[in-house]
Specification:
The complex is a heterodimer of chains A (177) and B (245). Chain A is an alpha+beta fold. Helices cover 45% and strands 10% of the residues of chain A. Chain A has a four-stranded mixed sheet. Helices cover 24% and strands 13% of the residues of chain B. The longest helix of chain B is centred in the middle third of the chain and has 17 residues. In chain B, a hairpin with a 2-residue loop joins strand 1 and strand 2. Chain B has two domains: 87 residues, Ubiquitin-like (UB roll); 108 residues, Alpha-Beta Plaits (2-Layer Sandwich). The model of chain B has no long low-confidence stretch (mean pLDDT 92). The two termini of chain B are 13 Å apart. Chain B contains six helices and nine strands, in the order H-E-E-H-E-E-E-H-H-E-H-E-E-H-E. Classes of the chains: A alpha+beta (177), B alpha+beta (245). At the A-B interface, helix 4 and helix 5 of A face strand 7 of B. Bound molecules: iron/sulfur cluster (2 copies) and FE2/S2 (inorganic) cluster (FES) (2 copies). One FE2/S2 (inorganic) cluster (FES) binds next to helix 6 of chain A.
């Protein structure tokens, strides 16, 4: 449970500023297209996720205000679907496959190794904002099991060791230099 | 049964067209009923007891707890009585061995999900879940308990929210949304991670939508929502009609 650090500015002021904010263009467009009907919530959350890479509390407050929905309902829907994330994504993304083939081939020990070394569980991002760990159910590359996607590259025959090396390289900015 | 409900059903029966009345059998009793009623209300009107948990008269039916499951001859699955409308000629059993077995399993699973240590609970002795378990004769739980350690929210000056006792029946959510019109609570996340949370997952005190009316506290069947300052067993919920469980 987070304490509400960002002060609750009056909904009207903050809503007014966001209706003109170019960053909110897609979000506003979708809400307008649906005539600000409450049932446009999921489409609007999609637009917010696509525009910002995550859905912040401030965005949820805005959407709740504009679509006349309870705050708790917006939060409930945003946390129900795995597609939406509430925290900003890391710079790099590792999607570990937990499908049947990969699971049998040892995906779990890889996950454990990552959690131990980098202190992140699936769905979380390292505190330095470098790496987000996600999981998937079958990437369609079962022949490569255990497989994972590192940023946009699918890699297979993974072991805890070579996965940890890749993640360490990201944190050490090996590719950037 | 309240007089009010009796009057209601009598009035409905009079205004119904003869073709709109269905006949059905519940536990061997031949009954006529309004097809718009649910099996639960029909049974209650005839003094047939079906246990419930998430059902609360006056708010929408939710069908979440499955405690009210009954058997209908010819239907493969058990159906929740609080949501099922009668069809002509159905034969319903509310106490068959299969129903009882399922009911027990469901209550045991509910108990295994959180920390239901009644001896240190504010609603000990007045808890609907506890009563349910004891009427069903549950003496032990076949499933390993999850015993999560969830943070208690005592930020509100008058109430306490202890998710460790919550059964996710959503009565608080519905009473707050439908009766008070505040919709402070909702169920966030999904599956085993589901939680009841206020506004944007904030401490209760900071939930701007809450009017402090306390309806959610009175509607909650367990010790998950209680008044501040209650010791073990002291939290009695105020209800218009005493629950029959
Ligand atoms: S006290 Fe009233 S307004 Fe506040 S959460 Fe409970 S039911 Fe809703
Ligand atoms: S807090 Fe009480 S009323 Fe609300 S879902 Fe949990 S058990 Fe049900
Ligand atoms: S199970 Fe991992 S790619 Fe299919
Ligand atoms: S009372 Fe019918 S499902 Fe809960």
């Amino acid at each position: 449970m987070q304490t509400n650090a960002e002060a609750v500015d009056t909904p009207l002021d903050s809503a007014l500023s966001k209706t003109k904010d170019p960053q909110y263009r897609m979000v506003n467009r979708i809400m307008c297209l649906h005539n600000y009907q409450p049932d446009a919530l999921i489409e609007t959350l999609h637009a917010a996720q696509d525009s910002f890479g995550c859905i912040t509390l401030e965005t949820m407050r805005y959407i709740s205000h504009m679509l006349h929905l309870p705050l708790s309902r917006v939060y409930a829907v945003a946390t129900f679907y795995h597609y939406f994330t509430l925290k900003p994504p890391g710079k790099h993304r590792c999607v570990l496959c937990m499908g049947t083939a990969c699971y049998i081939a040892g995906a779990e020990s890889i996950e454990k190794a990552i959690t131990e070394k980098h202190h992140i569980s699936p769905g979380e991002t390292t505190s330095d904002g470098e790496i987000s760990l996600l999981t998937a159910r079958c990437l369609g590359s079962c022949g490569l099991a255990p497989a994972a996607i590192f940023d946009d590259k699918v890699m297979g025959q993974l072991t805890p060791k070579n996965v940890l090396k890749q993640l360490q390289d990201w944190r050490d900015h090996v590719a950037d230099t | 049964m309240t007089d009010h409900r009796l009057q209601n059903s009598v009035r409905q029966r009079h205004s119904l067209h003869p073709e709109d009345i269905v006949t059905l059998v519940i536990d061997g009793q031949q009954l006529t009923a309004d097809p718009n009623d649910t099996l639960l209300t029909i049974a209650q009107a005839h003094n047939i007891h079906i246990p419930t948990l998430c059902f609360l008269e006056g708010i929408s039916a939710y069908g979440g707890c499955r405690v009210c499951l009954v058997e209908v001859e010819g239907y493969g699955k058990l159906v929740p009585a609080c949501l099922t409308h009668p069809a002509e000629g159905i034969i319903v059993r509310t106490q068959s061995p299969r129903v009882i077995e399922y009911r027990k399993k469901i209550v045991e699973l509910l108990l295994s999900e959180r920390n239901h240590i009644c001896s240190v609970c504010v609603t000990n002795g007045h808890c609907e879940l506890q009563q349910l378990a004891s009427t069903l004769g549950i003496t032990h739980i076949r499933y390993p308990g999850l015993f999560p350690s969830l943070a208690i929210d005592a930020s509100n000056t008058r109430f306490i929210h202890d998710p460790n006792r919550c059964v996710l029946c959503s009565r608080c959510v519905r009473v707050c949304a439908e009766i008070e019109g505040a919709h402070t609570w909702d169920i966030i996340h999904r599956g085993i991670k589901s939680r009841v949370s206020a506004d944007l997952n904030q401490p209760w005190k900071e939930a701007v939508t809450c009017t402090g009316c306390g309806k959610c506290v009175q509607a909650c069947p367990t010790g998950a929502l209680s008044e501040q300052g209650k010791a073990v067993g002291e939290m009695l919920k105020k209800r218009y009609t005493e629950s029959t469980t």
